[in-house]
Task: structure prediction
Amino acid sequence: MSDSLRDQLLKAGFAPLPKADNRPKPQQRSGQGRPQGQANARPQGKPSGKPGRAHAGRPPSPPREKGEIDLAKAYALRDRTEREQREREQREAEQRAREKRERKQKLTALLQVQGAALNDGGADIPRHFPHTNKIRRIYVTAEQLPRLNGGELAVVQLAGRYLLVTRETGLAAQAIDPDALVLLCDPQAPAPEDDIPADLVW
Result:
């Protein structure tokens, strides 16, 4: 029994186990184990070296689509049309104002002539007539009333005043400004449907 357990196992035919190599292995050097040609490859996603010409300066803007170009042209055309319309309306308004001033000057020159206005300061008979959707009146004398109702005299307006003038002066004022003549009776006109005489004094 002096033999050890190891010697007894060897005699029984059991081979000894190889001793494990517990020594630390050296670390694998960088680059080993990589396929040929990839040892010096750079990681993806990182820029390589200096930027090329394609990246130099400002990048070119993407081309605009046809629909965007047509829409821009439509906006430009609309703006130009609206601007031209405003300018045209302004010119027309200025033209109307200029013509109105000229008519007023001619009308004033016509009615300010000595004896053109026949208004009598002592007149006490009101003669009513419609004008601008309202009932207006002018004072006349007993001699002027039948002449006004007979169409020999007329009423014109100048600067907010109603002036009694001859028929000829009234027609001349109407030729200058159609709105200036506010009353010129026609003795041949039929009677109104309400049977109210035009020369009614009230």
The radius of gyration is 57 Å. Residues 58 and 125 are 91 Å apart (CA to CA).
